[in-house]
Amino acid sequence: MNYGNPLSSLKMTSKTSGMDDFPKGLCEWSWKENKLFELALAVVDENHPERWEIVAAMVGGEKSAGEVQEQYESLLEDLNLIESGKLDHELGVGEAHTCVLINSIESLCLSDRDSSM
């Protein structure tokens, strides 16, 4: 199978103005890097022998092949946890929640009951 180089025909344009400032405090990947990572996973064949090197280059070249592979494996673990039903991610049916930005890197969500205290 001829894999070719997906980078050769891909023209990247930035339509994320202002998103480069997305807080990195809770993770080591910026919003833009995550979006480029998603795109790279969509276009690079999973059986390509240099998959992780190509994905790393498409993310911007600041991440190593090992780092992008670790990110992928971490996302797979998260997905498996969510799909297994072991993750309680519901905030409550019918409750309104207020989110407050704290120190530009953390947010705090309060239910109506919490915010009335």
From TrEMBL:
Record key words, sorted: Nucleus, Transcription, Transcription regulation
Keyword Transcription regulation attributed: yes
Protein name: Myb-like domain-containing protein
CC terms in the record's Gene Ontology section: nucleus
Keyword Nucleus in record: yes
Domain Myb-like as annotated: residue spans: 28-77
Single annotated GO MF: DNA-binding transcription factor activity
Subcellular location: Nucleus
PANTHER family assigned: MYB FAMILY TRANSCRIPTION FACTOR-RELATED (PTHR43952), PROTEIN RADIALIS-LIKE 4 (PTHR43952:SF45)
Annotated Pfam families: Myb_DNA-binding_2
